[in-house]
Automatic annotation (TrEMBL):
SUPFAM superfamilies: Oxidoreductase molybdopterin-binding domain. This is Molybdopterin-dependent oxidoreductase. Residues 100-232 form the Oxidoreductase molybdopterin-binding domain. InterPro entries: OxRdtase_Mopterin-bd_dom (IPR000572), OxRdtase_Mopterin-bd_sf (IPR036374). It comes from Dyadobacter pollutisoli. It comes from the Bacteria. Pfam families: Oxidored_molyb (PF00174).
Amino acid sequence: MKKDNLITRRSAIITGISSLGALLLNGCSETSPPTYGNILRMGDMLTYHAHRALLPGQSLVKEYSFRDISSFPATGTTNPGDTSHPGFNEDYARFQKDAFSNWDLKVEGRVKKPGTYSIADLQRFPVKKQITRHTCEEGWTAIAEWAGVPLSLVLQNAGILPSARYVNFFAYDGFIDGIDLLDAFHPQTILAYGMNGRNLPIAHGAPLRLRLETQIGYKSMKYLQKIVVTDEFLDQGDYGWAWYTGI
């Protein structure tokens, strides 16, 4: 992707115009993420391309009021620092013991300035608060307020390179996942350090989680450890879940 295209993309993020979707759709048509398993996975990719082709790339999801905030169950991994958990992570347990004072997020890969960001560093960016509905793959929904920094600001601060196409997340509970740039630069895609007016609870991904409001809940990864920007799709193989689950 040429430099002038990157400038156009960033302008689109600021103004909310849909030209960004068309720009990235051209990139997606060249090489798509692989399809695994069965006809359901093929359907996932059909949904991905249909969303990219038919929906305005920067359409916002609905935001709610404080009175709509609901109870919010914690499912999946609820604490990687728990020694009884099969996904116990010694590093996470050490950070947790120190109230995450020594924790930082690594950002590397296809960026000009690889580096690390502490929670204090992330809180120096303009805060984005949003009250949104979480739609879990298990069938339940919940509404909460999230506070954090737009992922787009962190990527731009790190100097994302024009050739980049995917943003991949590595978590302390062992999960690895990724999104394309259209979702990464969506105005409501944030790195959340707060929930309902408080620091993000451990059960919900402390100290930092992704909030990807345009996709099903499990894509909003908890316990973030590292972000790696890549030119190519980071293939994790068939792990039983769709790579794209747009809603």
